[in-house]
Amino acid sequence: MNRENLLRARSNIIFILALAVGFALIMWIERASVPPAAAKAAGITTTAANAATTQPVTFSPDIPTQPEPRPLDKREIEWARTAWKYFENNINPKTGLVHSVDKYEAATMWDTASFLLALISVERLDLLPQKEFDALMGKALQSLGRMPLYDAALPNKSYSTADLAMVDYAAKPSPNGIGWSAIDIGRLLVPLTIVAWNYPEHTDAARRVIARWSLQRLTRDGVFIGAQVGDDGKQSLLQEGRLGYEQYAAKAAQLLGIDAAEAHDYRAQLAYAEIGGIQVPHDRRDARTMGAHNYVLSEPYVLDGLEFGWDRISREFAWRVYRAQEERFRATRLLTAVTEDHVDQAPYFVYNTVFSNGKPWSTITEKGEDASRLRSLSVKAAFGWYALYRTDYTEKLIDAVSAQFDPERGWYAGIYEETGAANKAITANTNAVVLESLAFIATGKLMSYRQENKQ
Fold it and tell me: What is the pLDDT, as a whole number, of residue 33?
């Protein structure tokens, strides 16, 4: 091995070790959680309690029409192949599950959902032989159907991709588990539903996965409830979710008859902040009073559009979140597509936001610490907006990120705004969103019944 390869290997090892220390930073669901008692005291658990302060939703006349599906061009096909390379490299052959970060042998249910959606996307793009798709999907569903459950009820927050053991967020064994994330499970219900609708040979396996779960424990009075195990080993139940993510997960939950009506209500906690002349929607529960950050960023609206196809309100809110980013570019000439992302240096995970905790364009850690030097142009946000709008601005975004990949490993997370250097974190979520975006361009929303699959 030459000196250059040794240095490259050392860099990868250091990054993986750092992720093992900092993996708790992906605990975004705790970061957006409030104990139910505190929520009730603050009047946030029911729409009725907020009737006097509910904000109206007005609709923009300039929202572009949803683009029709079209075949991918040669460049886009190569982008998809590059994204799939990540999964080829990171699927554990024993369990069929995928590492959350390149070579990091652990995954949350959110990461696992990303893998299944990437697998569905690459199949829809006809870039994977049917036999290989069936083998990969079958193995993953088999593992999901036999992995141990937290409290014998719901999936643990994190698992070893090597042996399906419950682990904590640092990938250390946790025989009793660390709790469940209702939002993560909600995301996993998206690909499981798509599989049940569209792939008859896997329908029974998908149903068996869900049948093991005590789904009634995901919500209480229509809001999402998660479980968290403290350092003392005691369990706490927490309200989960903020505007955007909360409604996204609720859509999947309601397909299975789960009462997530309050979580799905966009108006219940709605407020607006004027940013660049745009009235940007945000969750009025603020970290300064509620102890949880109310990040406004691209991801939940992008996923909602790619997977479900927007409803009337989410289409409006997505347009405003997108337009604020476009207006920042017009004012500053800084290309802007922001969301949560892993980064390739401490603290290893940050939130690049349109608005959070009373401030526009803040980049912060999960503790709320300033991380402005790590503000970045996100690859997955750029791809998502490119698929959903295809405007002159999204063309600029995609051109800017189109070279941000390693052809043997997949897409990087983004480009640092301050230095212009690549953020070389390589993750399941970034590469999955790239594939979802390209599948949306070619075939439309993923949550649909495809007539060609009707037997």
Answer: 44
Question: Is residue 406 within 8 Å of residue 426, measured between CB atoms?
Answer: yes
- How much is the pLDDT for 98? 98
Nearest to 120 by CA among 446, 454, 388, 384: 446
Q: Which domain holds residue 166?
A: 30-448
Which tens digits make up the pLDDT trace of 166-224?
A: 999 999 999 999 999 999 999 999 999 999 999 999 999 999 999 999 999 999 999 99
CB 393 within 8 A of CB 326: yes
> How many separate domains does the chain show?
1
d(CA 71, CA 69): 7
With a cut of 50, list the residues of the chain below it in pLDDT.
1-52, 453-455
Answer yes or no: is 455 within a domain: no
Distances (CA, A) of 381 to 16, 40, 150, 155, 354: 24, 34, 32, 28, 12
Place of tokens 């999204």: 394
Task: Identify each DSSP E strand in 169-283 by its residue range.
Answer: 219-220, 223-229, 235-240, 270-275, 278-283
285 falls within a domain: yes
CA–CA gap between residue 119 and residue 436 (Å, rounded): 9
Cβ 88 vs Cβ 344: under 8 Å = no
Distance CA(20)–CA(171), nearest Å, equals 7
Predicted local distance difference test score (pLDDT) of residue 55: 83
Name the pTM for this structure.
Answer: 0.89
- Does a structural domain hold residue 171? yes
pLDDT digits (tens, 9 = 90+) for 125-144: 999 999 999 999 999 999 99
* CATH code (residue 374): 1.50.10.140
Instruction: Answer whether 192's CB lies under 8 Å from 209's CB.
Output: yes
Tokens found for residue 100? 């959350």
> Does the residue 139 lie in any domain?
yes
Which helix (H) or strand (E) segment holds residue 160: the answer is: strand 158-160
